[in-house]
Amino acid sequence: MPSDHPGRGRRGSAPDQSHSDQSEPRSGAPSTLPPSAAVVATLARLYPFFRPAIPRFVAGMLCALGASLAALAIPQVIRWAVDNPLLDSVGSADRSGVWLAVALVLGLGVLEAAFIALRRAFILIPGTRVEASMRLALFRHLQDLPVAFHDQWPGGQLLSRSMSDLGMLRRWLSFGMVMLVVNATTIAVGVGLMIYLGGWLGIAYLASAVPVMYFSYRFSSRFRRISRLSQDQAGDLATTVEESVHGIRVLKAFGRGREAYQNFSAQADRLRHTELHKARTLGAFLFAITAISEVMLGLCLIAGVWLALDGQITVGALAAFFTTAVVVSGPVEQLGHLVSMTLFAKTAVDRYFDVLDTPNVVDDPAEPQRPEHPRGEVVFDKVQFVYPDEPPPDHAWRDPDRPCEEPRREVLDGIDLTVRPGETMAIVGLTGSGKTTLISLVPRLFDVTGGSLRIDGVDVRDMTRHDLRELVSIAFEDATLFSATVRENVLLGAPEGQDGDADLDRALTVAQAQFTRGLPHGLETTIGEEGLSLSGGQRQRLALARAVAARPRVLVLDDPLSALDVATEEIVTAHLREELTDTTTIVVAHRPSTVALADRVAVLQDGVISAVGTHTELLATHEHYRFVISSLVDEDSGESRPVEVSS
Ligand SMILES: Nc1ncnc2c1ncn2[C@@H]1O[C@H](COP(=O)(O)OP(=O)(O)OP(=O)(O)O)[C@@H](O)[C@H]1O
Questions:
Q1: Which family does it belong to (predicted)?
Q2: Ligand 1 pocket, 411 CB below 6 A?
Q3: DSSP alpha helix (H) spans, 53-176
Q4: Does residue 208 sit within a domain?
Q5: Is the residue at 365 inside a domain?
Q6: Residues 327, 382: one domain?
């Protein structure tokens, strides 16, 4: 299957992250490369995103080069002016040569300024486009990645990668990369001119490049490590902010604000120390290269004056030599900042591709199948499931004190269960027995790790995810609503091209969510994070309405009525039984009243289905079922009304 976004080579091409050393940041580049080659190899991965912007970048770079050449031409004019019109005008009234030199310097200055303005105009827009397209690719990939990935990655890490890392990259593309090329060219041309003007003086100045290169080499490997650490710590900090904002009610209710603050403060302090360390490392490097360049210029000045007095160099050439040195010294001093920016950008690219390279293991098959006449029969055939490993220990954002290799455990260990078309099957089991895990396999939130799960004879892994979504819909106990209108939230999964209003009416009635019509703007009221807040029971009813509106063949419900009062639950239950006669329903029952929905009940025990039958049969014959039901009655806040089950 072709890669569906630029920058992604092939599915499953993630670099092996499990064996890398934390001190060496992970990247798409082979780790055997020397640091500078690794930087180039990593940044080269941007090419697919960068390609459309190349013409404008090249134009911008040419403008920047033009500006540098204009600046470098000024010393040549000065040299000519000092050695010719200026000397000629001593004791003469003719100043025309001097005025010409002034006009030339002015013209070159204006040209330099114009080139700089043009450079900005060319590069600003493509830089933002590259950033936007990379952000889009990341978002699409995040949407595509399976639930297991999102279980493992902290939200703050994803947030910081998609926002601050990509912002950093844009700044590097728009400024750092361009100026790196331009400054390197300016230094090369400038030093060439200095050799031309001052002979050995220029060569002596060039010799200062040797210690500069040595310091650059040492600096780059150290700075890469620190910048990776600081970006990862910033991501951790974002995760902490996200968690404390989400959990603000719990923190307030338990009076844990102080602890949360202390935890945040410790993390912020760690980041501050890393930033200080980074700034000191950069400062030492900048000091070294500036000092080397300045000391060398001072030595050149002494030698130059001596050579001029000896008549081996003209005063004009000496003036031009030092004016050129001033033009070159700017780029030399900037080089340190640009190198650090480049290393920062490399880290940002590494962190970006850490996510983008994560293969999607819940993927569409090469040759998809779909049931010809969907009836809604669901068959679990020796299904096994084990949750994926924790993230590898070298993930820099992981807490190094946390154990990494936790033993893998089969949550489901040979599930055999057939749910007949149109049947309602309740899944009952003790807390942690794997009920949610079991039903999550039906819409492929996770893939089975053994055995198979078939709908109407077709393995769910052989269907496209789109086809599967049309067949199966799900409502969770923890109802998530999006910042959108009631209508948009409910019709989120409704089939396209059907009468949305009819689906909406039916779904709201079944889920007893007519209260939405009384909201300030009725069904057009915005709810969710940015809109009106709803109660837990109201949210659950909307989530149920959303699942019903999708008109699925198979409806999967993870205790979706837990927050409803008994009377409302009874009405919803009755409507569901009435409306869903053709729909196969698998419902996780956490309270006896939910079992009332079911035609049959499956008991999940020790990773297998230990019994299937009607509630009455199981009560009479299955000891573990009696135990589970009695514990559910206890849990159910004293609500121990008799359970009515039709079979
Ligand atoms: N994302 C996950 N990653 C790793 N392990 C998980 C994950 N989700 C659940 N588990 C583990 O799998 C086991 C089964 O969890 P599951 O949520 O399926 O149980 P459950 O029967 O639905 O529980 P409950 O009745 O409390 O909702 C538990 O031991 C749990 O710790």
A1: Belongs to the ABC transporter superfamily. Lipid exporter (TC 3.A.1.106) family.
A2: yes
A3: 54-81, 87-89, 96-144, 147-152, 155-160, 166-171
A4: yes
A5: no
A6: no
Looking at the structure, do residues 382 and 329 belong to the same domain, yes or no?
A: no
Instruction: Indicate whether 1 belongs to any domain.
Output: no
Q: Both 338 and 433 in a single domain?
A: no
Q: How far is the CA of 145 from the centre of ligand 1 (A)?
A: 20
Mean pLDDT in each 10-residue stretch from start to end of the chain (647 residues)?
A: 36 33 36 61 84 90 90 85 70 73 91 92 88 93 88 87 91 88 88 88 86 83 86 88 83 82 91 93 88 87 88 86 86 83 89 90 88 92 85 48 58 94 93 93 93 95 92 86 88 74 87 89 81 79 89 89 79 82 88 80 94 92 90 56 37
435, 442, 604, 606, best to mutate for ligand 1 pocket (most atoms within 8 Å of CB):
435
pLDDT of residue 34: 55
The token pair that represents 336 in the structure block: 């340190």
Q: What is the position in ligand 1's atom list of the atom closest to the CA of 559?
A: 27
Which residue in this structure is represented by tokens 């009377």? 567
Instruction: Determine the atom of ligand 1 nearest the C-alpha atom of 434.
Output: 18
* Ligand 1 centroid distance, CA of 602 (Å): 18
| Whether residue 383 is found in the same domain as residue 342 | no
CATH of the domain at 69: 1.20.1560.10
Ligand 1 atom closest to 440 (CA): 18
Q: How far apart are CA 581 and CA 583, in angstroms?
A: 6
Distance CA 179, CA 177 (A): 6
Q: Where are the beta strands (DSSP E) in 387-466?
A: 410-419, 424-429, 450-455, 458-459
Q: What is the pLDDT of residue 11?
A: 31
Sequence-separated (6 or more) residues with CB below 8 Å from residue 287: none
Number of domains in the chain: 2
Same domain, 617 and 558: yes
Q: What is the pLDDT of residue 255?
A: 79
**Cα-Cα-Cα-Cα dihedral of 159, 161, 166, 172, to 10°?**
140
Distance, CA 606 to ligand 1 centroid (Å)? 13
Strand 584-588, strand 554-558: pairing? parallel
Q: Which atom of ligand 1 is nearest to the CA of 148?
A: 1
Q: Identify whether residues 350 and 383 lie together within a single domain.
A: no
CA-nearest residue for atom 3, ligand 1, is: 387
Indicate the burial class of 228 (C-beta count within 10 angstroms; 0-12, 13-18, 19 or more).
buried
Tell how far the Cα of 640 is from the centroid of ligand 1, in angstroms. Answer: 26
Residue 497: per-residue pLDDT: 64
- Of 151, 387, 404, 636, the residue with max ligand 1 atoms within 8 A of its CB, to mutate for a pocket test, comes to 387
Reduce the DSSP state of residue 154 to 3 states and report it. coil
Domain with 425 in it: what CATH number?
Answer: 3.40.50.300
Burial 273-309 (b: 16+ CB within 10 A, else e): ebeeebeebbeebbebbbebbeebbeebeeebeebbe
Give the residue carrying structure tokens 């209710």. 253
pTM over 0.80: no
Residues 339, 382 within the same domain:
no
For residue 232, the one-letter residue type is: D
Does residue 413 share a domain with residue 339? Answer: no
Dist. CA 428 → ligand 1 center (Å)? 14
Closest Cα to atom 24 of ligand 1: 431
519 in a structural domain: no
What the block records as the tokens of 613 is 């039958």
Question: Which residue range forms the structural domain that includes residue 430?
Answer: 378-387+407-477+554-635
CA of 432 to the centre of ligand 1 (A): 5
Q: Is the Cβ atom of 432 under 6 angstroms away from ligand 1? A: yes
